Amino acid sequence: MPIKKSAIKAAKQAQARTLRNVAKKRTLKKTIKETLKADQLPKAQSVIDKIAKTGYIHKNKASRIKSRLAKNVKTQGK
User: Fold this and answer.
1) pLDDT tens digits for the chain (78 residues)?
2) What is the DSSP letter of 56?
3) Which of UniProt's keywords are assigned here (predicted)?
4) For the domain bounded by 5-77, which CATH number is listed?
5) Per-domain residue ranges for the chain?
C-alpha cells in the first residue's frame, strides 16, 4: 500500500479509471456483437463515436471499427 497522500490518491484514481475503461470495453464489444446479430448500425456507430470521444480508443481506430462493421453488416444482408 502507498504511504504518501499523493500516492494514495493516484492509486484511487487508477482504480476508478480502470473500472471506467473496463465498462467502456465491455460496452464496445457488446455493441459490436449485437450489431452483427441485428441490423443496428447507426446505434453502434454512435456508441463507438462516444467511446472515441472520451479517449478510450483513437478516432482513427473508431473509424476503422465502424467501417469494418458496416462492411460486415452489408455482406450479412446479402
Assistant:
1) 889 999 999 999 999 999 999 999 999 999 999 998 888 899 999 999 999 999 999 999 999 999 999 999 988 866
2) S
3) Ribonucleoprotein, Ribosomal protein, RNA-binding, rRNA-binding
4) 1.20.58.110
5) 5-77
